[in-house]
Amino acid sequence: xxxxxxxxxxxxxxxxxxxxxxxxxxxxxxxxxxxxxxxxxxxxxxxxxxxxxxxxxxxxxxxxxxxxxxxxxxxxxxxxxxxxxxxxxxxxxxxxxxxxxxxxxxxxxxxxxxxxxxxxxxxxxxxxxxxxxxxx
Length: 136
Hints:
Structural class: mainly alpha
Number of strands: 2
Order of helices and strands: EEHHHHH
Radius of gyration: 30 Å
Helix content: 55-70%
Distance between the termini: 44 Å
């Protein structure tokens, strides 16, 4: 028994002419803000409000950086800035006996010194093995 697999599932349906539902809502929201601003403000303030409103509503409706809608990036940024951040790698040790033990073990470890000749030799080995493996 064969089943038809849907294709083009990432393409949104066109609701109003060539516009999708989200695009239509963004443009209607921008138009609503402009309508209210025109009724309540004088011409200078209206232009001051209208220009950013038009740019933002058009950007949210049509601009898709890296193939994703701008609203996805806005939601991710909002979630990032409103959620708490836990940095585990900045953990402090408060017990003094543990700090002393860590300092003691750091002092006991031998320090390895690598000369420039040894570094050149290791780089040459890595380069030649990589070249040999790529040729096979």
